[in-house]
Design a protein that fits this description.
The complex is a heterodimer of chains A (about 300) and B (about 625).
Chain A: H1 3-18, E1 21-22, E2 32-53, H2 65-71, E3 75-85, E4 87-92, H3 101-121, E5 125-131, E6 134-138, H4 140-144, H5 148-154, H6 158-161, E7 189-193, H7 203-210, E8 215-222, E9 233-239, E10 245-250, H8 252-276, E11 279-284, H9 289-293, H10 296-300, E12 304-305
Parallel strand pairs in A: 4-5, 4-7, 7-8, 8-11
Antiparallel strand pairs in A: 1-12, 2-3, 5-6, 9-10
Chain B: E1 3-4, H1 15-25, E2 30-34, H2 37-43, H3 60-76, E3 79-82, E4 87-94, H4 104-118, E5 124-131, E6 140-142, H5 145-154, H6 165-175, E7 180-185, E8 197-200, E9 207-216, E10 222-230, E11 236-244, E12 247-248, E13 252-256, E14 261-267, E15 274-279, E16 289-293, E17 300-304, H7 309-319, E18 324-326, E19 335-339, H8 342-347, E20 351-355, E21 371-373, E22 402-407, E23 410-417, E24 429-433, H9 446-461, E25 467-472, E26 490-496, E27 503-506, H10 509-512, E28 522-528, E29 531-539, E30 553-556, H11 561-569, E31 570-572, H12 576-593
Parallel strand pairs in B: 4-5, 4-7, 7-8, 17-18, 17-19, 19-20, 20-24, 25-29
Antiparallel strand pairs in B: 1-3, 3-31, 5-6, 8-30, 9-10, 10-14, 11-12, 11-13, 11-15, 15-16, 21-22, 22-23, 23-24, 26-27, 26-28, 28-29
Helix pairs in contact in B: 1-3, 3-12, 4-5
The chains are: A alpha/beta (about 300), B alpha/beta (about 625).
Chain lengths: ~300, ~625
């Protein structure tokens, strides 16, 4: 599959999925700019919310005159605000996210899906690409135009740009590391797109994701091949992150232990997300995105029906 | 237990590991990228490098191929079964040359190998272990291989240069037409044509003694001289010192050019009767120590009568012979030197040298007839061409006399035996000089001087008395004058020059006929009962034994000799054709199992593992 075909597929898949699913905007009241969604505070919508005493400066049009007639006190009639929530999307662009064309395409589809959902909700969206501890902001227009990866590649590697932070590399080269710290905005719908294939405690990443008001969502694209070791015998394993080669003999006991460790790794992530109220869902890379979201993402509440 | 007509066929067994290796290596390491490196690393931290060898996967083809290899080896090795009635004689002939001492361990190993190879070639094997020493009996002859091996371990090479032919002919005679003989030696040139042989030698940079002499000096002491030869192809540096009576002299340096022969000498310390000259050691130790004894010949007391010119000549001559003393007051003489008439000489009971009264003829002419010697040790090799005199005179030979020299038809010098003295087995001898001494040139003719000296020395050695002398290793020890030697009771005490406890052993009847000095350097004594006969030192003197230029390792095998023995003593494997058939069947089965059927379908149903996908 070439790059053009992958981009076309990502955009088309995202549109198809966004026609049926959307990010979980309806899970809570939002704060933000005026929009189509009920806000957490008082606003100018038609939905009555509360009464309160008038204070100078209030809009006299909202004085509840009937109550004034009955009680003689100026009472303000409050309506729910209608806001457009902020959407923050952080996508892991480490090498493992592009291990196979299918996984690369699914990642692109999820990014495009998030942008499409935000556009349809009228929510301002901010995107960041994270490669280890290196962050790079992406313009939503680039995502809409399906050029964000080309722009990222044109910008060179983090090391070449000189914006790689100290400690970004690990022993043995650029081994898999957790992205971050990520610049989440308080009260935003925060979506992290990452395969979570890096060692370490999930807590630091999830604490930031769950901090402040808003909703945290983790969408983890995963390959079926990654869940097990498909080979037997002597294998020259190459770490996709740093190219380090390791000669490893794979036998049945090792494959069994690997499958268990892989499952345990994501069980830990799932449990950690549950404790912190972060929505977690693994998104299979196989099949259409529309169908993939209907499974665990929908069940976990990471997406909701858009109709 | 079968034997193999073609043992090289067993190399086919190497096919087993080869097949295993092929099956191990047939799967190459696959290359794969992974996104879960951290998980794998945590699970297998010690397997930074996997095994180069893949796990052996069982398959029918593998087992068929493995099974075919032993069968192929069996068929190629041509197994044969020993006939129950077969018999053979294996003769191992060990070179008895002293040079083999340097390779004794290798020679024993070669003999052991030969016996191991020959064992089992027949149902019954007779082992003969012997040396090339024609005088030595076989070390072992019997059917016990362990005893034969033990006999080889007892072998001690001591001889000098000798011909191995007689011993080999004897070995071939013992082995017979169906037997095998093997000569174990160190040099290819010692091996006769058509003889199986194993060479166990190798070049050694040897420096050693090549002979020694000890002479009496004017002061009455003795001075020894020893030859040291560098048998190496390179210059050698050695040191030497003298060990005597528990003391050791200072080390003396000795530098020898390649192949050089040099002499070292010193005076034997006063009061020391035995000493050892020691060279710094090398790989061949037999010639590194030179034992010496101060020579003490048998005593001979002579009586010299007269004061004429002839008497004076004999006085000087006898005085220079070791061991000869002139009779003094109260000392009986064994030998008499005197001018006697024929009658006086006939009446004289003792032996001696006698010459007649002066010739009184006024005009006696010189006799020009040539002087002809008889075949006798006393005149052997002497040149009488310069003799001149008036011819035979004074004594006439009688029946029983032994002429030594003839001039014309008359004996010029002859021996006459005397009657034995009471208690003696044999009498003395009289050297009758039947010519006029004064008118002859006998006193100036070397042959005449040597004749008289030889006679005196011979008579001295015929005395019944102990003596001390230095001998070459395996040199003949003169025991004349001791007629009881042949009766037995003779013992030899030997102490190696290298030290150690003296070894006392009886002298066998076979040795008594021609008694020889020990084959190894050392000190020895010979006793008849408690009576000391000889005290001596055996010296390594055969320089050829210390030269290892031609020593080499080799093996000379007679073509077809082993094969002939196998065919004679064994019968072929009756199942050979079946094994061959099985081999063909296994080969075909392996080919079929591997998917070689004409239709190209995997007849065995064996499932091949797909190549790994380069995914995770």
């Amino acid at each position: 599959m070439n790059a053009d075909a992958a981009s076309f597929s990502a955009r088309r898949g995202a549109l198809a999925a966004a026609a049926r699913w959307r990010l979980p905007f309806s899970r809570q009241a939002w704060r933000g700019l005026a929009g189509n969604w009920l806000g957490a505070g008082a606003g100018s919508s038609l939905d009555f919310q509360d009464h309160r005493t008038y204070v100078p400066g209030d809009d006299p049009r909202h004085i509840h005159w009937q109550a004034f007639a009955r009680t003689g006190a100026l009472t303000m009639k409050l309506y729910r605000a209608e806001v457009a929530p902020f959407v923050d999307v952080a996508v892991d662009v480490s090498a493992s996210m592009a291990l196979t064309p299918a996984k690369l395409a699914r990642t692109d589809e999820l990014v495009a899906f998030c942008v499409e959902c935000a556009d349809r909700a009228g929510a301002p969206v901010r995107l960041h690409a994270a490669h280890g501890r290196t962050l790079r902001a992406m313009a939503p227009d680039e995502v809409r135009a399906e050029r964000w990866r080309e722009r990222m590649n044109a910008g060179g590697s983090a090391a070449e740009r000189g914006d790689e932070k100290p400690g970004a590399t690990k022993a043995g080269g650029n081994a898999a590391v957790a992205p971050g710290p990520l610049p989440w905005r308080p009260g935003a719908l925060k979506v992290l797109i990452s395969d979570l294939l890096f060692p370490g405690d999930p807590a630091p990443l999830l604490v930031a994701l769950a901090a402040g008001a808003g909703i945290g969502v983790v969408l983890a694209p995963g390959l079926a091949e990654e869940a097990g070791l498909p080979w037997r015998g002597n294998i020259e394993l190459t770490d996709c992150e740093n190219g380090v080669v390791r000669r490893q003999r794979v036998d049945e006991p090792l494959a069994t232990r690997y499958a268990a460790a892989y499952a345990r790794h994501f069980a830990l992530w799932r449990e950690a997300c549950r404790k912190r109220g972060v929505l977690f869902a693994r998104v299979p890379c196989e099949g259409l995105l529309m169908n993939a979201l209907a499974g665990e993402p929908f069940a976990a509440g990471a997406v909701e029906a858009g109709l | 237990m079968p034997i193999f007509g073609n043992p090289a066929g067993l190399w086919a067994l190497l096919g087993v590991p080869a097949i295993l290796a092929i099956h191990f290596l047939q799967q190459r390491a696959k290359i794969a990228r992974t996104s879960t490196w951290f998980l794998i690393e945590k699970l297998a931290p010690d397997s930074a490098r996997g095994r180069t060898w893949d796990r052996l996967r069982s398959s029918r083809a593998l087992w068929l191929q493995l099974l075919s290899m032993p069968i192929a080896a069996w068929v190629l090795a041509e197994p044969r079964w020993v006939r129950a009635e077969s018999a053979q004689t294996v003769a191992v002939v060990l070179d008895a040359s002293a040079s083999m001492e340097a390779f004794r361990g290798d020679a024993i190993a070669a003999a052991d190998r030969e016996m191991v190879l020959a064992e089992g070639l027949a149902a019954r094997t007779t082992w003969v272990v012997m040396t090339t020493d024609p005088r030595a009996p076989a070390l072992y002859r019997g059917t016990e291989r362990e005893a034969a091996t033990a006999a080889v371990a007892r072998w001690q090479p001591e001889l000098g240069q000798h011909d191995p032919g007689p011993a080999l002919r004897l070995a071939h005679g013992l082995a017979g037409a169906s037997g095998r003989t093997l000569l174990i030696t160190d040099t290819r040139t010692k091996v006769p044509a058509g003889q199986r042989a194993a060479g166990v030698g190798r070049p050694i940079e040897n420096v050693g003694f090549a002979g020694a002499s000890i002479t009496r000096d004017e002061g009455g002491g003795h001075t020894w001289r020893a030859l040291v030869k560098n048998n190496a192809g390179t210059a050698q540096h050695r040191t030497w010192h003298l060990e005597a009576a528990g003391t050791k002299s200072a080390e003396q340096p000795l530098d020898l050019a390649p192949g050089a022969l040099t002499e070292i000498s010193a005076r034997l310390p006063d009061g020391v009767d035995a000493a050892t000259v020691v060279l710094s050691p090398d790989e061949f130790a037999a010639d590194d120590r030179l034992p010496l004894v101060r020579p003490r010949p048998k005593p001979l007391v002579v009586q010299l009568d007269g004061d004429d010119g002839a008497a004076e000549f004999f006085r000087k001559l006898a005085g220079n012979v070791d061991g000869v003393a002139f009779a003094g007051a109260g000392v009986p003489a064994t030998l008499r030197l005197a001018r006697l008439s024929a009658d006086e000489a006939a009446r004289e009971p003792r032996g001696g040298v006698f010459w007649p009264q002066a010739d009184q003829r006024a005009q006696a002419s010189l006799l020009t007839d040539p002087v002809t010697p008889e075949r006798d040790p006393l005149v052997a090799g002497l040149n009488w061409q310069g003799w001149f005199g008036t011819g035979p005179y004074g004594y006439a030979a009688a029946p029983g006399d032994t002429p030594l020299l003839w001039q014309g038809r008359w004996p010029l010098v002859f021996l006459r035996a005397t009657s034995p003295a009471p208690g003696r087995a044999e009498g003395g001898r009289k050297l009758m000089l039947a010519f006029d001494w004064a008118t002859s040139n006998a006193s100036r003719l070397p042959a005449a001087v040597l004749l008289v000296r030889r006679f005196l020395e011979a008579e001295r050695d015929r005395q019944h008395a102990p003596y001390t002398a230095n001998f070459d290793c395996n040199g003949i020890v003169d025991l004349q004058g001791n007629p009881a030697v042949s009766a037995g009771g003779l013992t030899r005490t030997f102490q190696s020059a290298a030290g150690g406890e003296p070894v006392v052993e009886p002298v066998g009847a076979g040795e008594r006929a021609e008694l020889r000095a020990p084959g190894r350097a050392g000190f020895f004594t010979l006793k008849q009962g408690d009576e000391l006969l000889v005290r001596g030192a055996a010296q390594f003197a055969d320089a050829r034994q210390g030269d290892f230029h031609a020593a080499e390792k080799f093996f000379i095998e007679l073509p077809g000799e082993r094969q002939t023995a196998i065919e004679r003593n064994t019968r072929a494997d009756p199942f050979a054709a079946w094994w061959l058939l099985a081999l063909v069947a296994l080969g075909f089965g392996s080919w079929w199992t591997r998917g070689g059927s004409p239709r190209g379908s995997p007849a065995s149903g064996e499932q091949r593992e797909p190549e790994a996908r380069v995914t995770a």
